[in-house]
Amino acid sequence: MTEVNIKYLAAKLKLSPSTVSRALNDSYEISQPTKDRVIAMAKELNYQPNPFARSLREQKSKTIAVIIPERINNFFSQVIDGIEEITQEYGYHLLVYSTHENVETERKIVSYLLNGRVDAIVMSVSSQTKKIDHLETVYSKGVPLIFFDRICQEIPTTKFISNDYENGFKATVHLIEKGCKKIFFLMLSKEISIGRERLRGYQDALKKYGLPYEENWIVQCSQSEEANIKLIAKILYGLDRPDGILASVEKLAIATYYAARETKLEMAKDFKMVSFSNMKIAGLLKPSLTTISQPAFEIGSEMAKLLMKKLTKPNQPAFENKVIQMPSQIDFRESSN
Amino acid sequence: MTEVNIKYLAAKLKLSPSTVSRALNDSYEISQPTKDRVIAMAKELNYQPNPFARSLREQKSKTIAVIIPERINNFFSQVIDGIEEITQEYGYHLLVYSTHENVETERKIVSYLLNGRVDAIVMSVSSQTKKIDHLETVYSKGVPLIFFDRICQEIPTTKFISNDYENGFKATVHLIEKGCKKIFFLMLSKEISIGRERLRGYQDALKKYGLPYEENWIVQCSQSEEANIKLIAKILYGLDRPDGILASVEKLAIATYYAARETKLEMAKDFKMVSFSNMKIAGLLKPSLTTISQPAFEIGSEMAKLLMKKLTKPNQPAFENKVIQMPSQIDFRESSN
DNA sequence: AATTTTGATGCAAACGATTTCGGGCCAAAG
DNA sequence: CTTTGGCCCGAAATCGTTTGCATCAAAATT
Question: For chain A, is the Cβ count within 10 Å smaller at the N or the C terminus?
Fold first, then answer.
């Protein structure tokens, strides 16, 4: 298929393969006239270097793996757009995997990547991830690793999140100021870091305002959209029903819309809601949704910048063990008014 | 980094590398006891074959490129989910690229993939793609190629779309039956195939019902969200304003919501709208949106099945030059009622 | 004039896997 | 007793690049 390789070029030019290679890589050892000849011929024959031969030799792939829990989610799409924006400039490629919030899938994907297929991994862990030995393996193998959003605190590397604690706090205060007394907190799973931080903010806000709260106001939802709707509907039907809801992830806010519709309760009037979400059309919903949205694109591009620095410059140290917070934005809309 | 390779295994086992390779590939030439020993040792040392060495030798990468015009779009996300569902079973990897509707980016991406980096390409062309020599190059190089949604008719390969003509027709008829007399058609670009088919359906429906239509009812929008909103708002303000709108892509429907808001017109009452869209929450908008949604996941998985058949079985013929239509679904909601 | 330096290029060995070829060995068949 | 053929295995070539080292002429130095 790809007939034209370095050897072929060399034969055509009556040079040795090594000279051709060096000329193409602009080595100082090659004279300008020769370089020009080689480059001209390469262009003419439309020579494209074989990436595998190069990767094999150089022990690097110019490829980065991005692992996300789900694809149908604006936040993750925006993050990947941000990553791509930077990596494309450097000629890096992106292998994208979705775990579908499944740990087993996550483990399998990660295991595929331990053999040098990628130069680095950027990931957001699944909501079911509890045991983290597979992530420790990645780290111990020396594969550069960055976490974002759903981070894994135990691995000593750089992590990117937004100011979740602060926003959990602010959102809760906002609901309190709007008169809510019984604010429920919807979360996907206790495992995920992000949920925990947002929860802390929520709890501290209640505490600060001297509001009591019950253990069962913290609602653990599942992966099943239907089950979540049922669960939330049941809560909205309940005697002890909330007058405020803080949804820690977008999909639970959506489920709440459907649950409200089922129970014939009117959001904003019968109960108020704020959600963490990067949905673009939050303003078009009925009622429009008050959101806390993360700087997704920037998180992606910042991660990529860090990666490119490490991968393209010599003698770079390992990623520092630190958490970088990027500020979220709150947009107040009808659902909490 | 990755110390454990075939040579190392061979040394450990006091066998030759070739025997180890054969044992791992379950060759008939190797005795069962030897195979067992090798496999046990490989597992113990957690041997992972080097993908580049293998790709170099075998001239295949077990990687597929997916090129889409934008990431922040449920349709494309679902298609990729569908592709991944199948390819993951076969151990294939997905390189995902977004062109951001930019032809130049598309050309660049495509050129990266001509050197054997991927075993096949699945793509939806950008709305700006007019000249198609870069796609012809892909085809002539023999890289298996499948188009979907935004297809390129000129390349003789298999394409997947939904029944766009039919649905353009049906949607228009629906609007007519709801009493619309002046139905405008919003499209991104004349270049994209998908828009043209939908447009044909629209035109034929008008013709069938004996409704007149003006050339300027077909509105060419751009990539800029703001510009589109302004343009649509201007149309809604106009003397000759529509009482019905058919949006050929989701983002134009969204723009119409904002335009309506700006002009203080009430969708559904002052004008009706139907849109092609795979948005999950169309039902939660205000007013809820009547949509024609494509079987995105199935389109993805069907494409992947075809690909896997070609790539994993010997002596498979090239993809047939045909268009496969998968039926869309219309969901009637408030916006057209 | 003899030697060293420099500049430009070629040779050959990697990188890690697969595979062709061929070599023993042993049992069954001629 | 020779031949055939299956079975098990190893040596070495191969895929396309990059790179340490060798080469070799011309220029510079002593």
Answer: N
Is the CB of A51 less than 8 angstroms away from the CB of B117? yes
Angle, CA of B123, B128 and B129, to the nearest 5°: 55
Give chain B residues 45-104 with Cβ within 7 A of strand C.
Answer: 47-50, 53-54, 56-58
Instruction: Write the pLDDT tens digit of every residue in B35-93.
Output: 999 999 999 999 999 999 999 999 999 999 999 999 999 999 999 999 999 999 999 99
- For residues A136 and A300, the answer to whether their CB atoms sit within 8 Å is no
CATH number of A58-162+296-328: 3.40.50.2300
Token couple for B304: 């992947």
Report the C-alpha gap between B61 and B121 in whole angstroms: 12
C10: residue with closest CA to C1':
A16
Comparing CB atoms, the residue among A94, A280, A285 nearest residue B285 is A285
In tens, the pLDDT along B257-315 reads 999 999 999 999 999 999 999 999 999 999 999 999 999 999 999 999 999 999 999 88
What is the fold of A164-295+330-336? Answer: Rossmann fold (3.40.50)
The 10s digit of each residue's pLDDT in A19-37 is 999 999 998 889 899 999 9
CATH of B6-49, one of 1.10.1220, 1.25.40, 1.10.260, 3.30.420: 1.10.260
Rounded CA gap, B15 and B24, in Å?
13
Nucleotide of closest approach to B29 (CA, C1'): D8
